[in-house]
Structures are given as structure tokens and as C-alpha cells.
């Protein structure tokens, strides 16, 4: 229940209301790279991430992967089911071993919404923020070139997940260069070229599992 209270969507609910949600939630665990749901599956549940990271995205008609978001713990996902989505348009895939999450039946969650106006407003706010993130990403694809998008991704990731050591910021990650390309709407070759160029300029250092940003302000 403590975890539920930390979720922005549910932070305004009382202890008894959180207990009610906990009573209809099912705990689940999946292994690294396992899919939680896939496109065209029936959208019967919404999910709350407890541990690990999950990536969400879709596949183009040509089979190309497009990553939409990398989700951190205490995040609601699969939430389009609350807006009337009956079959998944996206996928959700574990990025870590032992990804843990709660699954709540959409019908049960919607029944709670019918009797709780605060929960309705919280869901509306959550979905509005989700739409804003999509619009921001589309704007970046239109207005910024590939190099700018890759650098902005590094800066944003450093802000969310980085550990400061003096002027330097260490970002430990589990993303391949292809994942970064799929997130930034570029190609793996472009990501490799930009990262190598930034390393030659002594702005970053990177290996398979981490990226060290020498100075975030200079990189930005």
C-alpha cells in the first residue's frame, strides 16, 4: 500500500481507498526481456511498476521497433485501456531481471472510478501528461536534427537517472545503441557516430553498461 501512495495518480487517495485498490491488485514478476503485453492483445489490465525498468513502444508495418518510453518504478502503464482501448496498440517489455509489478483489472479499476471523483480527476491529469509527452516528442522529431535529439536524450537521462560526481555525471543503463536510436528516431549508425564524436571531444566516455558525462552543462 505504501507503494500505491507514492504513485502520483493515487497520491490524493485515503488509506482506506488505497487498501481497496491493493485488494484488487495482483502481484507479478517477469524475467529480463519478457513481454508484459504485446500489440493486438486484449487490454484487460492496467499495471503499476514496482521494481526494475520497462520499455513501451510499437512496431511499424515494416517491423521496425519504435520505443516510446522507458518506465521507472512507481509508474502506471497500460493505461490506454482506461480510455477505451480494447486491444493493445503498444508492447511493454522488461529491461531488467526480476521486474515486478501489480496488475489490476480494467473493469475493477473503472468501478472504483465510478465511486471516486478524485480518482477520475487524477486519471484525467495523468492521461493529459501522457499526451503532453507524446506531443513534446513529436515536436523534437520535427524541429531538431538527429545529433540534437541524441544529445538531449543523454542530458534528460542524466537528469533522471544520473549520479553526480563533482562536475561529472555517471549514468548506468541497460540500453543498446539500437534502443537509443529507436527512442530518438535515428539509426544505430547515427547514434554510434554521435557518441564517438562526443567521446573524441572529451564530452562523454561510454562503455557497454554506462555513460559518463564530463559536464552536463557543456554537453547541453
Describe the fold and architecture:
With 220 residues, the chain is α+β, with helices and mostly antiparallel strands. It has two domains: 2-142, Jelly Rolls (Sandwich); 145-219, Jelly Rolls (Sandwich). The protein is 41% helix and 26% strand. The chain is built from eight helices and twelve strands. The strands form three sheets. Strands 1-8-3-6 form a four-stranded antiparallel beta sheet. The protein has a four-stranded antiparallel beta sheet with strand order 2-7-4-5. A four-stranded antiparallel beta sheet has the order 9-10-12-11. Strand 11 and strand 12 form a beta hairpin. Helix 5 (146-161) crosses helix 6 and helix 6 crosses helix 7. It is globular.
Provide tags for this entry.
single chain, 220 residues, alpha+beta, Jelly Rolls, 2 domains, four-stranded antiparallel sheet, 8 helices
Topology:
Layout: H1 2-6, H2 15-23, E1 25-30, E2 35-37, E3 45-51, E4 54-59, E5 65-71, E6 75-77, E7 91-94, E8 99-105, H3 106-114, H4 117-143, H5 146-161, E9 163-165, E10 168-172, H6 177-184, H7 188-200, E11 204-206, E12 210-213, H8 216-219
Antiparallel strand pairs: 1-8, 2-7, 3-6, 3-8, 4-5, 4-7, 9-10, 10-12, 11-12
